[in-house]
Amino acid sequence: MSGLRIGKYFHKEQLERDYFNTQKIIVSATESGKIFGLDSRNGDVVYSSLLKNFAKPKDRSIQFYIQRTGAHAPFPSQSVLVGADKRTGNGLLYFFDCITGEQLDQPVTLNRPILQSGLIPVMSSNHLEAIFVLDSDLNLSIYPENLDMPEITAFVKDSLHIFDVCSKTGVARGYRVKLVNKAWKAVEVWSATLTTAGEAVLTVSPKRPHDFVHSQGRVLADRRVLYKYINPNLVAVTVQGTDEGKKPYLKIVGLDGITGRVVFSQVHRRARGPCHVVHSEHWVMYTYWNEKVRSNEIGVIEMYRGFEKPNQTYFSSLESFEKPELSSVAFKLPGFISAISDTVTVEGITHKNLIVALASGSVTQIPKVLLDPRRPMFPTQAEREEGLIPYAPELPLVTENIINYYKKVYRIRGIKTAGAGLESISLVFTYGIDLFFTRVTPSALFDVLSDSFDYWILTVVMLVMTIASVIVRHMANTKALEQAWK
Questions:
Q1: Peptide bond before 150: cis, by omega within 30 degrees of 0?
Q2: Quick one: DSSP state of residue 443?
Q3: Four-CA torsion 248, 268, 245, 204, nearest 10 degrees
Q4: If we measure between CA atoms, which residue out of 371, 348, 361, 234 comes closest to residue 299?
């Protein structure tokens, strides 16, 4: 590291957690190895530093993991950047405090390029979660190395499954981890070729590690419950190719990352990328270019397991072999799409919205209810009672749903969303040439009193009710005493 530079307006004593947990330090890393800490309130640079010999890997993006948050005083927050060495291309890990930018440990340089990495969901006594790193020789390492806990060993040995897709060859592989000569070694369990000649992998989209699902099913008009197919190990892979007539097509495959079993597969003729995918709960949304109508479209796939109630607390890919019932549809969206994401809240109770960044510089949100593949063309009375609205092939861009208003944000590369302390609030951060941060409320602020709430009226009403209850109680006691003397 060439030296930590503190922002002009930054004072460490000013770091204070707000009551609703909406104030954040946004950590941004560039492909050249420079990291920034931005204040979400005003965009000021809290800290910045240039990491020596740190760069983006050739075939994957820089990974960022939070091993310990700032809620565990007196321990400092700790995070790690997983990238590559500029000179050799081997793996490089950089540990730092994501709130102040201070380096915590010496960077770790591996002997091989990194194939896969991730957090180990086992918390130590000092509230620290370790990460695993799998190199190209299938050697697995755990960092920090001084975290020698039986719980971590048991998780790696019994529960850790690793999934990887090679975008060049189109081969997906699944690994288990075994202890060989006192060292962790990944062993290939299954492999599947997702592409043929002339095809290429566009995107690989697993679910979030902590994808909260509040409702396990949908209540229909006849009071039956249609249960969702919720597989936390499902990975959505998009593949593009050309047919014999030189016409492009797009294929989306749902693959179980534990067993390699194909859960679903769909093909769109005369369609091509760019493709952006959002994968959450029991649905997958993806965008593509339809050459037939020359328009961007959003495809939606929802998966259901039927009316039989499943075990809501347990799911195993090794024991579940059922094929879900698919419900799919496509919608036309005016404008060119740069990136998409979905809103995230603390408990997953709030309705989902799709955040869409357009090439025109607008960032808009589309309610999930408009992207329901069960929308009928001519709804019956029962379907209206269920809340389904008539199907329309084109999604309207409502100006009230544009979250950046008149401030244009150009050349957006991605969108990150996170929850806040309130269930009704979701934080949205878009990045690219321009940076933009805001918060949205998909179901309105249902857990916060509005600024126009009249506290004086509430106080007067409570006082009147209290005085009235005392008077009525005295009158009741007096009447009871009079009746007792009769």
A1: no
A2: T
A3: 40
A4: 371
Beta pairing, strands 353-358 & 91-96:
unpaired
- Calculate the alpha carbon distances from 46 to 36, 50, 396, 416, 433 in Å: 8, 14, 39, 20, 19
Contact criterion met (CB below 8 Å) for 343 and 367? no
Instruction: Name the DSSP letter for residue 479.
Output: H
Close Cβ partners of 388 (under 8 Å, ≥ 6 residues apart): 372, 374, 375, 376, 379
Determine contact, residues 401/366, Cβ cutoff 8 Å: yes
Looking at residue 394, the DSSP 8-state letter turns out to be B
Mean pLDDT within 217-238: 88
Contact 133, 119 (CB under 8 A): no
Which backbone phi and psi does 330 adopt, to 5 degrees? -130, 145
CA dihedral 451, 455, 458, 463 (to 10 degrees): 170
Compute how many other C-beta atoms are within 10 angstroms of the C-beta atom of residue 461.
Answer: 11
**What is the DSSP-derived secondary structure letter of residue 281?**
T
- Residue 479 Cα distances to 141, 470, 473, 475, angstroms: 81, 14, 10, 6
pLDDT tens column, 282-311: 899 999 999 988 889 999 999 998 888 776
Cis peptide before 74 (omega within 30 of 0): yes
What is the rounded distance in angstroms from the CA atom of residue 432 to the CA atom of residue 434? 5
- Reported as a single tens digit per residue, the pLDDT across 121-140 is 888 888 889 899 998 889 99
Spatial contact of 82 and 141, defined as CB atoms under 8 Å apart: no
Q: State which H helix or E strand residue 235 sits in.
A: strand 234-242
4-52 pLDDT, tens per residue? 555 554 555 556 667 788 888 899 888 888 898 898 888 888 888 888 8
